[in-house]
Amino acid sequence: MSVQDNVVFILEVIGTVAFAVSGALVGIQKSMDIFGVCVLGVITAVGGGAVRDIVVGIIPPNVFRNPVYATVAVLVSCLVFGVMYFRQSLSSERLGKLYDGAMMLMDAVGLGIFTVVGVNAGLQQGYGDNAFLLIFTGTVTGVGGGLLRDVMAGVPPYIFVRHIYACASIAGAVACTALYSVTGMTAAMFAGVMLVLVIRCLASHYRWNLPRISLENE
Amino acid sequence: MSVQDNVVFILEVIGTVAFAVSGALVGIQKSMDIFGVCVLGVITAVGGGAVRDIVVGIIPPNVFRNPVYATVAVLVSCLVFGVMYFRQSLSSERLGKLYDGAMMLMDAVGLGIFTVVGVNAGLQQGYGDNAFLLIFTGTVTGVGGGLLRDVMAGVPPYIFVRHIYACASIAGAVACTALYSVTGMTAAMFAGVMLVLVIRCLASHYRWNLPRISLENE
Amino acid sequence: MSVQDNVVFILEVIGTVAFAVSGALVGIQKSMDIFGVCVLGVITAVGGGAVRDIVVGIIPPNVFRNPVYATVAVLVSCLVFGVMYFRQSLSSERLGKLYDGAMMLMDAVGLGIFTVVGVNAGLQQGYGDNAFLLIFTGTVTGVGGGLLRDVMAGVPPYIFVRHIYACASIAGAVACTALYSVTGMTAAMFAGVMLVLVIRCLASHYRWNLPRISLENE
């Protein structure tokens, strides 16, 4: 493996861990048992990548060929379950804050990493001349895992209710696509991840508000 | 591009506009902000086509290669959001009626167009000798976008609760498949779209009722 | 067709019937009309197989090429609707018990059969040297139909709330993968199906409980 392959692999593992944590947390909040929590962790962690691979024509998807992603996701989900199990004594208020913060951060890390990994996968498959495809594939890969997680768990998807979620992913994908020919892929990927993280954290911290329509007839 | 390619492209753009409007309207009713509304508009507009392309083996799907569909969907979603934003002053009753009528019509137009476009995609990929595949692909393409929209937004899917929804799509796909060798594809597609529209409008206007089981133990 | 092809085909038809029944029952419980019930029956019955085919590279998926699966699913769904329609006179308590039992059994049969059919599809596509892929493909095929059914119908997915659901499928896939080179595929598939059925029935009968976290702040 080249240096860049290693960078991509390490990023993917970190993203898998982050998304598995977010999936496990949602499962715990929905009162699922430990198996349900693991399943949701795995779906969140491998879902985005599976969709990406099918879309760019890597069949069977990589997550089906290489057991490392599913294994990591199961281990992480069990770990999260164990930690939360022994934290039940915490006051509910502190737990709620911990939960919200952990969800936001883990989801943002997964979003950023899978976005740039998606751009990279499009490039590897030879679509470097189609910037739109790279950006769209990056965004679908980034938001896919979290969207599957929320739809399966029956909670309102993050992407529709959180501040500037899809936009952060698009911004990261655009940055990565624009930079890779100048800075090399490794630097472009880091820049993309950082941009997504910064946008999501700022939007979450300052609770950027966007126009919304309140229909009276509801 | 041949004349027929142009017809297909124009139909696809009209269908994209119609489904984007329906997605944006659902997003607005679920009190999403403008970004959420755009995301739901795009998912509804490109979802059916993406599923169709993966199913018939066009990979990456056309919507990933050609930015026109996503761009149109974003613009239309923003426009719908803008119009509704300045219509908040309307009485809630009139708004509710407007909403229901607009949803029904836009959804029916998208359903009809994507159904025949799906049949056409199956033909282009060389499955003309398998009428079942053409009809099934047409139906999946037609109902796919709306199904994704409703599942993501957490509302009961149109396809399960509306009068004769999947049946209208199947009827349109059958008509298009049966006619194309006789009348040519362009006429067959128009006939299919019209049939879907007429069936949906009649079913909606006369509120055709179908047997339903009321379980007492619920 | 060889003997083994016949065995696979017969298993698939039985699995299609079982999943169609489970889909129709969920549709009836959600008060869908007869068309909605049929659509949900078809989605449940062909969903898992369609996902499996796309994942292992059989494009278009077999369910799009061969009308027998969708036809069987429609007929079975109508039959279930008809039977339940004339059973409305039953006391609600007896109906509730009948419903729960039928759902559990039909879902378990479908789960078991589609799991081993998924393993077999991976083998047929030449991935016999990758046990992880076989097991993962089997599990995705097994749980896919029921997951689609529950997400579409807006009920909490079986896989997250039922006792040892994904685990039963994984166990069946592992058994089938481990045995086929020793016992031949036919025996391995039967062993896999039986294992899934036994695990699910035991778990359901004895209501095996798994650790679960009750968050106070909900």
UniProtKB/TrEMBL annotation, chains A, B, C:
Its main location: membrane. It is found in: Cell membrane. It is a multi-pass membrane protein. Keywords: Cell membrane, Membrane, Transmembrane, Transmembrane helix. The keyword Transmembrane helix applies. The chain crosses the membrane at residues 6-27, 34-55, 67-86, 98-119, 131-148, 186-203. Residues 10-83, 105-180 form the Glycine transporter domain. InterPro entries: Gly_transporter. Pfam families: Gly_transporter. PANTHER family: INNER MEMBRANE PROTEIN, UPF0126 INNER MEMBRANE PROTEIN YADS-RELATED. Belongs to the UPF0126 family. This is TRIC cation channel family protein. It comes from Claveliimonas monacensis.
